[in-house]
Amino acid sequence: MASGGIARGRLAEERKSWRKNHPHVRGFVAKPETLPDGSVNLMLWRCVIPGKPGTDWEGGYYPLTMQFDDNYPTTAPSCRFPAGFFHINVYDSGAVCLSILGGAWKPSITVKQVLVGIQELLDDPNPDSSAQHRCYELYKKNMPEYKNKVREQAKRYPSRM
Fold it and tell me: Does the active-site annotation cover 47?
């Protein structure tokens, strides 16, 4: 296949699979970018991850972009929330720090598994892999204030459906 052909083929399959079997939770979205001419860019997906019910993240619908390169699925996608997103495992740039997006990546991991993994990470962060010092400090030293900031952030990302 031409450069990126394997990646695009796998992403076309991922898109088909997502449409048939996406998480049956209101709010999950994962779709390739539509270009101005109506064509689809399979290498960039616009996603939304809903906060899990019963958590401080509930009520938020968090936008995330998944950028794939020509080596996908050998290499993990780059996943980003908006810059400044408040979370221990999200860099100020919005880049997500999650094991399955780094050293624990396997080509068999699906878009669905990545999105569900990030949803889990929201309420169950890994403080040993902190990407934001201010979040880490609040999480360790002032949990009520940390939770308050999470709930405030949820209000900034209401459902658009």
Answer: no
